Structure formats: structure tokens, C-alpha cells
Amino acid sequence: MSKRTHTREDQRQRTEFFDEGKRLDANPETRQLAGCWLCGLRIDYTQAPGTTTDSHTLDHYYPVDDYPELQNDPDNFRHCHFDCNSSRGKGDAERGLGELMPAWWS
Q1: Where is this region: Disordered (predicted)?
Q2: Is 96 part of any domain?
């Protein structure tokens, strides 16, 4: 059974986090902070959260099933695509290692 709660406070926090992402995405200087933390691509903030594969969902860095005490901790929140969050489930995040070092670096 899930340890997740679905209270008005939970919904308020989700809405507030979505609105924060939308504000960050609107400014080219902060846009990277509003992207998907798993794949790094831009999230479609024009769609309602959780309605399309590219729409926003609030992801928890530490899964709620394992860390229920962190469900409402904003430091545990991450902006994420609906599809990326669904694919991850409650497992560890599988992020790429980033870009390869340029040849001149070695």
C-alpha cells in the first residue's frame, strides 16, 4: 500500500511547484532550472500537469514509498516530464553521464 497522502496541502504544493516551473521556463535566463531533471529537455508548461507525455509532473528525488517523511519537503521536489517520471517509477534515477569531454581536454 502506498504511503503517499492526497491532502489539500499536497495539491497546493503541487500547484505552487508547477507555477514556479512555469515562471522559470518563461525566462530564458532561468529556463534550464525548469527543465526535466531526468532527461534535461524542456517541459511543456502550456499543458495541464500530467496530461501529456511532455507535460509537467512533480517528481520526488527520494521516492515517497521509501521516504514518506519527505513527501512534502520542497527540497525533495524535481520538475519532470510525465513520461520520464512514469518510466522511472520509484527506482533510482538513471541519468546520463553528461557530454563527453572534448578531445583537446585529454
Answers
A1: 1-23, 85-106
A2: no
